[in-house]
Amino acid sequence: MANNNLSAVNRALRKTRNTVEQGWKAQDLERQMSRRWKEGDVYAPHDLSPQEMQKWKRKSRPTQDAFDALAINPLDEYKNFSILSEYMTDMGRIKHSSETGLRPVNQRRIAKAIRRAIGMGIMPSVHKHPELLQLEANVKSSRGQILG
After folding, report:
1. Among the four residues 11, 23, 74, 127, which has the most C-beta atoms within 10 Å?
2. pTM for this one?
């Protein structure tokens, strides 16, 4: 009698474990799918390829303002090129607040700090820092020597 109860419990445990593992597998597959398919959506096999899935990945913006989290005033960081460059595009434009995730007050402050640094000549208004451009030129020339 005790043996039957024990085997029934073991069967129930195995069944529960299998159900949980299948749920995990389904969640893993769901995480890999970047597009949310709805009932009735029509798709071609190409739509399931990694290249197409890459197009649907969302770029999430930061959820918390970095300057508030670190208790830093962005205006005081006008001399810090590495911080300012995080909030500029490759072409030298100030990123929109939807990309930076900053509060409106801190977005205005970082924009003012960037304009101040450019005005003082600390930060270039070109798309990349001259030292980075020089470094890239050196890497390209060394590749040319290896390939040529």
Report:
1. 74
2. 0.49
